[in-house]
Amino acid sequence: MHALTTVADVLGIPARKQETASPFALMTRIEEGLSIDALDRVSALLAPGDSRFRFDIVPRATLARRKAGGVLSADEGTRVARLARVWSLALDVWETPEAARGFLFRPHAMLEDARPVDVVIRSEIGAELVLGILGRLKYGTAA
Q: Antitoxin Xre/MbcA/ParS-like toxin-binding domain: which residues (predicted)?
């Protein structure tokens, strides 16, 4: 449950809201549409000096259309939540935001020299690969 709370925190969902009381409630919240603020929050945490990073997550034209309604689609929200989940574990493993960013934005041999952040954005399978590497780092096995 701690990991769930951490992901909700990264997404900017207040802890007191009933929506984060269970994994299914958080899934429903994401499927119904995360706010654009969640995208901005995750972008600022992962790439604070890069105003264009958010367009790697949601293309510029799509984001412009989403601003009218203020919410992301289920697929876009899932992508943002995936990044929040990976960020939470990277921060836990590396202990500082700078070190976590260093890992996420540097090519990794176990990902065929792709940057972990790009692999996470690309697909859920990519996120699982990155989470696996972070888990091995956290628990002291080869990564």
A: 90-140
Q: Cβ neighbours of residue 47 under 8 Å, at least 6 residues apart?
A: 53, 101, 105
Provide CB contacts within 8 A for 6, sequence distance 6+: 88
How far is it, in rounded angstroms, from Cα 94 to Cα 16? 28
pLDDT tens by residue, the chain, 143 residues: 345 557 788 888 865 554 456 778 788 888 888 889 999 999 999 999 898 999 999 999 998 888 888 889 889 999 999 999 999 999 999 999 999 999 999 999 999 999 999 999 999 999 999 999 999 999 887 66
pTM assigned to the model: 0.84
Q: How far apart are CA 105 and CA 35, in angstroms?
A: 25
Radius of gyration of the chain (CA): 15
For Cα atoms 142, 9, 31, give the angle at the middle one, nearest 5 degrees.
Answer: 95
